[in-house]
Specification:
The chain has three helices and five strands. The chain has a five-stranded antiparallel β-sheet, with helices on one face. Helix 2 (about 55-60) packs antiparallel against helix 3. The chain has helices at about 40-45, 55-60, 60-75; strands at about 20-25, 30-35, 80-85, 95-105, 115-125. It is α+β, with helices and mostly antiparallel strands and about 130 residues long. Helix content is about 25%, strand content about 35%.
Length: about 130
């Protein structure tokens, strides 16, 4: 696992739009959205930057719990986890039908998971993002 300081946005170029960065809080009991790329905002129709997962779960339990389970898995395995497939149709706020995503742990100085970086590609419904 690289440290957070080893992963810089500049080398990602335009791909940084597809990246989110989440801080692990209190031994993965909760997480906080630190960076949300534009592509994620377009896909979900909202910007969660600054929110905690507990806030998301309180407002949208189905989506929040599924998302938290993905991050919990990365923290428990201490290794990347990837998913792809049809998703989004069951989420009324989502604006996509297909998703390919990878979650990658970033370690702290002691070797624990301090952040989880996510990179996703979405296929928008009807072939285009709403304006």
């Amino acid at each position: 696992m690289p440290q957070r300081e080893e992963v810089m946005p500049r080398p990602l170029g335009r791909l940084v739009r597809n990246v989110s960065l989440v801080k692990v809080l209190a031994d993965a009991a909760d997480y906080e959205f630190r960076v949300i790329g534009d592509v994620h905002v377009q896909a979900y129709g909202a910007n969660a930057q600054g929110l905690k997962f507990s806030d998301l779960i309180a407002s949208n339990p189905d989506f929040g719990n599924v998302l938290k389970a993905s991050y919990d898995l990365v923290c428990a395995r201490r290794a990347p986890v990837a998913f792809r497939g049809f998703m989004g149709r069951e989420m009324t706020q989502a604006r996509f039908d297909w998703l390919e995503t990878i979650y990658m742990p970033l370690r702290d100085a002691e070797g624990g998971v301090a952040y989880v970086m996510n990179a996703s590609v979405y296929v928008p419904r009807n072939g285009a993002w709403p304006r």
